[in-house]
Amino acid sequence: MQIETMFIKYITSQKATVRLKQTTISTYYRNFEAHIKHFFEGVRAIDESVITEFTKYLLVRVSRKTANDILTLLSAILRYNKIDIEIYKPRFTVPDVESLTNAEWERLEDYCLSHLDFITYCVLLDLYTGIRPGELCASKKENLDLINREFNVNNTMQRIKNLDINATAKTKIIIDTPKSQKSIRSIPLINDLVMIGTNLYQSIPPNAFLLTGSQNKYIEVRLLETKVNEIYDELEIGNKNVYTLRHSFATHFYNMTGDIKTLAVLLGHASIQTTYRYVFTSDETKRFGINLLVQNRNLLS
User: Which of 59, 108, 144, 282 is 20 to 30 A removed from 215 (C-alpha atoms)?
Assistant: First the structure.
């Protein structure tokens, strides 16, 4: 049986249809067509030696993390088609993501307050809630509960492969539920965001997108990143991206509270281990901790 036939059997199975989200299916199609399909086209029998060669093939073309994801997909395809081969996946480390320094945070906040519009309000919202970019893009005024002073996250926006063979566009935008039940959450709002939001969105209908104030116009993640990067450039904040806002919230919240469990809930993480990767330890924080030992030396003696 050819690899493409095996993939179609797996991806259209009841198990995949029920368990996998549209975004995951789209990613699987992309990884299969870009890497697995091409390599296995002329392969008649799949054994451990072929898998070893494929792993080497991947490691010179993609990152170890991407290779791990592709091999995980291949393993699922083979397992569904009752081909029992153990696949060893390469280890990888998740790179550290830097947060905004205190000075950068203040400059960004000051800029947003002095250039207030839907975009800059949402940048502030992200700084003080830590929501994902896709969640922000999908959010509407109705998610901004100004009465109860909460922001309700229940959707995310993503661009995925268009699986409709009759469609003219190769990709499409979808608004779907977040990746896990933990991602559906309510986040308390600071008083300033409530006050500003009340004035800014006063005449905006409930089903209008927060980033545009329009019911018919949205901003997807790639465009949001462009707009945030333009603000960074103006403020001369380098080596940051739209995801920095979420990581900055995580780092500042943890440094102020030390409460990783509550932070995991606020970020919508299913595992606290994931949350630890979001917390950036700066040299300033390390020095502060070391100096505390000196301040409390009498307690240690």
Answer: 108
